[in-house]
Design brief:
Length: 434
């Protein structure tokens, strides 16, 4: 049981900043920010402006083997709010697949926790949900939050040296191999990814997250801390959401850079609208998502609400589609997630063939990159993002990583695909290299 209190906020943005600073004292933190002040687009299905969950009362951590069954049992026994992440490599639980590539980050495959303290921010109010065991700490916490301020920024001891796992020539050769699979008819589309990384590197996670969020202001920003493992994410993409019996998935496929010149920016946006290759990429994934959702949907309820709509973010224009379905009232939330994971926008079509092919060509185990972070509420509603445009940090190993990818179809030009990867990597590189 939780003690529920509601408070009016003098200043929503100040409270959010102070709250995230205050949260740094805990080993388990999930912060989700929709950046609603800056974004009018893509807020149709937003439940909260921001959410903070801290301090694990109970938790589950596991590798991929039977991971979804273990999560189902944990969620059922807890019957409370749980927050956490699913790594891409849980594909090995849903299908007969493997992940044998290099893994320098070493995050567990699945992690969820039941927070002692939970803050739900909407408009100018915050709702606090504290477990009974700690509800006597609420007033002291609110006073402490009010006094919290960003720590003094320390200069980095040495500049961060970012390296690539795959150089440009290798990348172009590997994309050519993906293309040969499309010409042969093994796949229509595959999302091929590459890692950028830095070793023996210390970063300040909160400062890095704040810079990344300021540059991008995305609707699915995330700060996640699990011991010495961090995710600092500026994700623009929702993977899947459940509200009552309605399921919403919003795959992104199609990217164009922004331009400071208003006229040039409009041209780039219009070019994306009419780009046949980008539209075909998006439509292929929409078909895949429709198929995934149909596995748990009431017959005839899967619909495409938006097809190839352009949403503009600070760094890029994106082509987003919205696919919805209805499920039975007693549908298990974990079953809905399991039958749609990993998300189509990060795999390809057909999904299993695409995952097999990209596993042989990628150099890095994806881990939390192209996985998902989110929550499940006590009534079985949930909301999860897609972990892209993100920096991952293993503080104990002093290893920093970010990955980017692109959808390869029969019409792809390897050189242009490489350039698109650099556009997607720009914000992360800027933040790390200051």
């Amino acid at each position: 049981m939780r003690t529920q209190q509601k408070y009016r906020l003098k200043n929503n943005e100040t409270f959010k900043q102070n709250l995230l600073v205050w949260a740094q004292q805990f080993d388990d933190v999930v912060w989700l920010d929709s950046n609603s002040k800056h974004l009018k687009d893509n807020q149709n299905y937003s439940s909260y402006d921001a959410v903070l969950a801290v301090d694990a009362f109970t938790a589950i951590q596991t590798d991929y083997f039977n991971a979804f069954d273990k999560l189902k049992e944990y969620q059922s026994l807890t019957n409370d709010w749980i927050f956490g992440y699913l790594t891409y490599d849980l594909k090995n639980d849903t299908e007969a697949l493997k992940s044998n590539n290099d893994d320098s980050l070493e995050f567990p495959d699945l992690y969820f926790f039941q927070p002692k303290k939970l803050f739900l921010i909407k408009g100018n109010s915050v709702e606090t949900l504290y477990l009974k065991a700690v509800d006597d700490e609420l007033e002291a916490d609110l006073l402490e939050i009010e006094k919290s301020s960003n720590p003094t920024i320390q200069e980095l001891e040495s500049p961060i040296k970012i390296k690539q796992k795959i150089n440009k020539d290798e990348y172009i050769k590997k994309v050519a191999k993906v293309l040969s699979h499309t010409y042969r008819g093994d796949i229509y589309e595959a999302n091929f990814c590459q890692e950028f990384y830095a070793e023996d590197t210390k970063i300040q996670p909160l400062e890095t997250y704040n810079k990344l969020n300021t540059i991008s202001k995305p609707p699915f920003a995330t700060f996640l801390k699990m011991g010495s493992n961090y995710l600092l994410s500026a994700s623009p993409e929702r993977y899947i959401k459940k509200v009552g019996t309605k399921i919403i998935s919003q795959p992104i496929k199609g990217t164009a850079k922004r331009d400071e010149d208003h006229i040039m920016d409009s041209i780039l946006k219009n070019n994306l609208v009419s780009d046949e290759k980008e539209r075909s990429e998006n439509i292929m994934i929409v078909d895949l998502v429709r198929n995934d959702l149909s596995q748990t949907a009431i017959k005839g309820s899967v619909k495409v609400e938006e097809l190839c709509k352009i949403y503009s973010f600070d760094q890029v224009h994106q082509m987003v589609s919205t696919v919805v379905s209805e499920v039975k009232e007693n549908a298990n939330p974990i079953d809905i997630i399991k039958t749609t994971f990993p998300m189509g926008s990060m795999t390809g079509a057909p999904k299993i063939s695409a995952m097999q092919i990209i596993e042989t060509l990628e150099e890095t185990k994806r881990g939390l990159y192209s996985g998902s972070v989110g929550y499940i509420s006590p009534n079985g509603d949930f909301d999860f993002n897609v972990v892209i445009r993100s920096i991952l940090y293993n503080e104990a190993k002093q290893y920093v990583s970010y990955s980017v990818g692109g959808a390869i179809t029969a019409k792809s030009d390897p050189q242009k695909e490489y350039e698109e990867c650099l556009i997607k990597a720009k914000a992360m590189r800027e933040v790390l290299e200051s």
